[in-house]
Amino acid sequence: MIGSIDSPQVNFSVNGREYDLAYYLTDGIYPKWATFIQSIPTPQGLKAVLFDQCQEAARKDVERAFGVLQARFAIVKNPALCWDKIKIGKIMRACIILHNMIVENERDECTEYDVSDFQQGEGSGSSYVNFTYSTDIPTNIANQMGVRTRIRDRQAHQQLKGDLVEHIWRKFGRDQDNN
What we know:
- InterPro entries: Harbinger_derived_prot (IPR006912).
- Pfam families: Plant_tran.
- By secondary structure, this protein is mainly alpha-helical.
- It has a domain at 9-78 and 150-174.
- It has five helices and four strands.
- The protein has helices at residues 46-72, 74-77, 85-107, 141-151, 154-177, and strands at 9-14, 17-21, 24-26, 36-38.
- The strands form two sheets. A two-stranded antiparallel ribbon has the order 1-2. A two-stranded parallel sheet has the order 3-4.
- Strand 1 and strand 2 form a beta hairpin.
- The longest helix is centred in the N-terminal third of the chain and has 27 residues, at 46-72.
- The radius of gyration is 20 Å and the shape is globular.
- Residues 1-5 and 120-129 have low confidence and may be disordered.
């Protein structure tokens, strides 16, 4: 995502403030951009500790879910740098639906089978990867630079992070006061 200067357009409100760029929960290796929200390395105070716990838990849930999909579907494990977002979205939705169908089916069965029968080794060459990609690239460089500047805005990053800390505290912090 870092190589891209695009972020999904969404509208949401946090702590009474409106935002229009999606954000991603990340670890500390990502830059402090408006679209990346990291945990707090050394949280000070109950609000920061609670935010850190919630952010890390949600991020790990997403990582685990994506890991399950990568283990099951080679198409998710392989790079998709040349594919357009619509195609990637359709592939991900299809994999999630298939995964849920498989889990539901396996829940009803008690059949024992050797998992290695279904796994593909690295470099087996049995997966087909379509390298066609969309050439619908915006040509307005001023527009691209404006979006790039908005995404890389460190002040917007700090504002969103602060608003998320307050939101989490208002939503879950009452439990912390009683401890």
